[in-house]
Structures are given as C-alpha cells and as structure tokens.
Amino acid sequence: MSNFIDEIMSIVKQRDPASPEFHQAVHEVVESLEPLIERNPVYRKLRIVERIIEPERVVMFRVPWVSDAGDIIVNRGFRVEFNSAIGPYKGGIRFHPSVNISILKFLGFEQILKNALTTLPMGGGKGGADFDPKNKSDNEVMRFCQSFMNELFRHLGPNTDVPAGDIGVGGREIGYLFGQYKKLMNEFSGVFTGKGITFGGSLIRPEATGYGATYFLMNMLATKGLDLKGKLVAISGSGNVSQYAIEKVTEFGGRVITCSDSDGYIIDEAGIDKEKLHFIMWLKNVKRGRIKEYAEKYNAKYFDGAQGIWKAHNYHVAMPCATQNELDEVSAEALVKGGCVAVSEGANMPSTPGAVKIFLNNGILYGLGKAANAGGVAVSGLEMTQNALHMAWTRDEVDKHLQRIMKEIHDSAYNAAEEFGQRHNYVLGANIAGFRKVADAMIAQGIV
After folding, report:
1. Does 126 participate in catalysis according to the annotation?
2. CA within 20 to 30 Å of 382's CA: 292, 333, 365, 405, which one?
3. Pairing relationship of beta strands 89-95 and 124-129 according to DSSP bridges
4. How far apart are the C-alpha atoms of 178 and 162, rounded to whole Å?
C-alpha cells in the first residue's frame, strides 16, 4: 500500500508542483485511507482517490477596483469547485494576501470530507482573493467585493455553489457580496451563508465554528470521563472562531488564558471572562485593533510574534483557531510536556504533520480541523435549509441541531477508528468516514 501512497503523491506533485499545503492535505488523507482501501479494493480499481483529488472546476480571474485615493488596483480571485458528489459545492471565501491556488486547493479538498461528515448534502469547494481588507475603508471593501462578484456570480447558485465567509470575509463582506449577486441575478436566493439575520441569515452562524469545536472537544473528553471544569485552555487567534470558542469553553467551566493575532499574543492568568471577551469582540470586530491593546487595558502579559503561544505556559487543552500550520513539532512537544490532554482545532490544518504525530504517539485526544471545526459549515447547511423553507429557526433550535451534528461527527470518526482497530485516532476515523460517504456516491453516479 505504501506504493499506492507514493503513486498518488507523485501525481499530485507533478500536477501541482508549487502547492505544499495541498500536498500536505492529500498526504494526510491518503495515509489514513490505507486500511480502508486494503479492505475495499474497488476504491482503487475505480480510481476514486485519483478522481477525488482533482477538482471538478477551477476558476481564476482578475479583480480590478479603485481605492479611495483614486488608484486602480488589480487583485486575483479564485473559486475551486472540488466535488459535488453529495451536494452543491459548499465552502468559504477567504480574503488575505497569502491566498493562492495551493491554499485554496488544500482548503477545498479538506472541505469535501468535512462537509460529508456533517451528514448534510453538501459538496466541497473554496474560494477567495489575495486582497487584504485590513486598513481598508468600508467603501474600498465594498468596491472590491462588487468587482469580485462581477465575475464569480456566473459560477454560483443555490443548487450549484453556495459560498460562505472565511478569514477576512465577515458579515460586512458577505453583505456586499450578496448584494451584488442579487443585483446581477435579479433574484433573492440562498446563494450565500453567513448572511445577516435581516436578509436570510441563521442564528448561531457567527458562533458556530467556535461552539462546534468546543462541543467536539467535550465529546472527546467524555470518552475518557473528563470535562472542561477547572481546565486551563490555550486558544489562538482573536477572530470569530476564537471569540466564540472562548465563550463556550468558559461556559463549560474552562479558564481560557490566551488570545493572539498576527502581531503577537497575550497571557492573562486571571482568565478571559465575559467582560474581557466583550472587549476583544469590540476591539477586533468594531475597532479592528490589535490584541496588544488587551494587554494594556487588563495588565496581561504581551509577547511579540504568534508562534510562542503554545510554549509560553502549561495548558490542559489547546485550541488552535488562527491559521494553517501555526502549531509545529516544537510546540506539540511543549504541550505534551505541559500536561495537555486534548487538542481541538478551530482553524483548518493548524497543526503540522510532525505535530499531529506527536499528539497521536502520546495519546493526546486530537480533534483534527475537518471534524472539530465543521460546526461552521454545519450551520451554513442549516441556513440553506431555512432559506429553502422560507423560515427561520430559533437560537435554541439551531444550537440543538449543532450539538447533535457535532456529536454525530465525533461518533462517526470515533466508530470508524475503532472499526479499524485504532480507537481515539480521530485522524484516521474522520478521513475514512468522510471519504467512504463521498466515494460511494461517486461510484453510484458513474465516471463523471
């Protein structure tokens, strides 16, 4: 079977030679699938892996816009429509200078299996642009979003491709994107999720990824008779995912003592309580300031650079919620030595392959992103359902659905791992459970 892995990676590297993030994502999945493919050779015979790693469609386009100063700026936009075997393409749009085809292919590929795990009928896709919304006026962001949508609209539809937000794309950006889509198509449809409540959005959507990662964490801890009460928790990032992970962890009795942004991180030994969390929300969502201001206001410790957050203290639980590959082998070793018992990923692929091996080899309960952070896309799916029904559910109804879905994701990953003799290996379990659902649908639909 190692020859099979080599064959797949050879294909990927030959076709996408400058795509390290995509290579990493594919290798992790293919490695996990070895026992499944040994048991079910039909997947190999029908070239399911070779087909699933190749997107059904990739769109790349220029995005010209005019700054407040009157300068013409040209960015690059993308949409990777990866797999529609179980439903319309579904996945976020990211606005960040680092956005390129490698990152979007890795994210879109992960999204295929993540969406399959939710039990909802959603395929996998991802998109974005190398535009940086930081330090841009609302009018500049609006003009960029409208130009971006002027091309992308022709590839979207409620039964074709339904984007959502991601890094750099929050409620403001979704509003502008949806407004331009509505104007161009002359219709009001549920083609975006993460919309404002006043125009078809779902309650709990902003909270969903952070809440979901916490619910997944609680399910993992419960398998060993543990919970969050009294646990010291490290959470990276300070955006939507981090904010609501802090809220939910605190609600379950954990004490969150860290927060970060791209400039640095803080450690607050007293814990980030409700009042401090509200300040973070105002700082990041309204003022769009830097986390250093938290340290100045609450007399917390501040450190330049985000990488040191995992080594700066001993934690019981870690929740990387910032960006890909933020947690490396050295950080993983520090977490193990510091007594960490569980890691639940709020970001996509935030742990390097070496870090993941350290977690698994040391018996850490490790919830990989495609399972642990699927709460966001799960509630996006629930938003699609509400739009299709022309109705809105209450906050409690959506939260109950989210808790149920996160338990089902946990249980399907746990059971698949146990089926193949590797209990608590959520990497193997999640990849097998998600892949099997998509692969069986692809086989049923023929060679398309």
Report:
1. yes
2. 365
3. parallel
4. 11
- Alpha helical stretches, state H, 224-328: 240-251, 274-281, 292-298
Q: Tell me how far apart the terminal alpha carbons of the chain are, to the nearest angstrom.
A: 26
* Domain-embedded: residue 446: no
Indicate which CATH number applies to the domain containing 353: 3.40.50.720
Q: Which of 90, 105, 114, 126 is catalytic?
A: 126
Spatial distance between the Cα atoms of 27 and 21, rounded to a whole number of angstroms? 10
Q: Give the CATH number for residue 140.
A: 3.40.50.10860
3-class secondary-structure state, position 150 = helix
The pair of three-digit structure tokens given for residue 294, joined into one six-digit string: 């938290």
Query: Look-up: residue for tokens 């419960």?
Result: 222
pLDDT of residue 49: 97
- CA distances in angstroms from 223 to 32, 209, 218, 339, 412, listed in the order given: 22, 22, 9, 18, 14
Structural domain boundaries, residue 229 = 208-372
With CA atoms as reference, report the closest residue to 25 among 12, 11, 34, 37. Answer: 12
Say whether both 157 and 281 belong to one domain: no
Q: Note the pLDDT tens digit of each residue in 247-298.
A: 999 999 999 999 999 999 999 999 999 999 999 999 999 998 999 999 999 9
129-159 confidence digits (pLDDT tens): 999 999 999 999 999 999 999 999 999 999 9
pTM of the predicted protein model: 0.92
H/E stretch holding 149 reads helix 138-152
Token pair recorded at residue 286:
């309204």
Q: How far apart are CA 83 and CA 112, in angstroms?
A: 6
